[in-house]
Amino acid sequence: MAETVYGTKSGGEQARAFHLGGEKLSAVILDMGGTITEITMAGRDGRRRNVVLGLEDLAAYEASGWWNCLIGRYANRLKGGITVEGQHYPLNQDDNGVILHGGRGSSWGSRLWKVTAHSDKALFLKLVSADGDQGFPGTMTVEVTYTISGNALRLDYTAICDAPTVVNLTNHVYFNLAGEGSVLAQQLQLNADGITPTDNLQIPNGKIADVSDTPFDFRKPHAIGERLDVADPQLALAGGYDHNFVLNKSAPGALEWAARLRDPDSGIQLEVLTTEPGIQVYSGNNIRPGRSNSRGEPMHRRDGLALETQHFPDAPNQPQFPSTLLLPGAEFRSTTLFRFSLA
Predict the structure, then answer these.
(1) Would residue 308 show up in a list of annotated catalytic residues for this protein?
(2) 38 is catalytic
């Protein structure tokens, strides 16, 4: 297995890159935040492409803290903190009382994780999050395994904690199956009959809305850009797609397909399978000028699509949503599979 120095963090620590896979599919994962900098496969023309929208260097990843990396302790949004067993924890709120991805300035994605084992097909990462980290109660131990098998990259998550707490983990990876340019022509299909609509702060209002006859109906494939500009209150609030889709499940925790993404030009197709009850679809609405991609070229809005498998945003404050409570003696487990093929 190839292991190289990827760069030096602002504090002087070296971040390493681990190269997984073989001829069909390969990936590069950093020990800083489990960041996925590359997933490479060949399109129908035989040319290999990096189908991940990466940043130009380690400094850019560290400054972002949320790009292509592991997100915790709570992925997506919370409002006003959490209450666990009668004790309120305000967490790292912004000026509007919103906590995004655990809170700005304390990202798990900018931290060096311990590599506990690695091979040419797998990488095992571990992080111990101390009691009070990001304002959350309890010392949490998280382990994430990246495994390549054939044309698939599998992520397995486990977490335990020594005090009652909440947990919601994901990898905020951006895909572009063309390898460059806009994703607007790429076709998306989702195994979801509903979304959790939000208020103007993008906090769920507690309801599940049917996607029928809306721009959120991806039960049949649609180009990502096909309906982005239609007059819809939810699209207007987010500036595009940035919504939690409620996945159809045969049983809670079943590893089943959630999303299919296909690029008509390269022929590359991605199928996402997950045990999670939801998936956040984010169309890169807030990518601003001045950022460069991994090729050193200017990055634009809609150059990538994030597919973040997850529990629902603000679930600790919305008891009708699937629970994210983690108690001592219990173990959080989650699996997401990114499976590639030529359509």
Answers:
(1) yes
(2) no
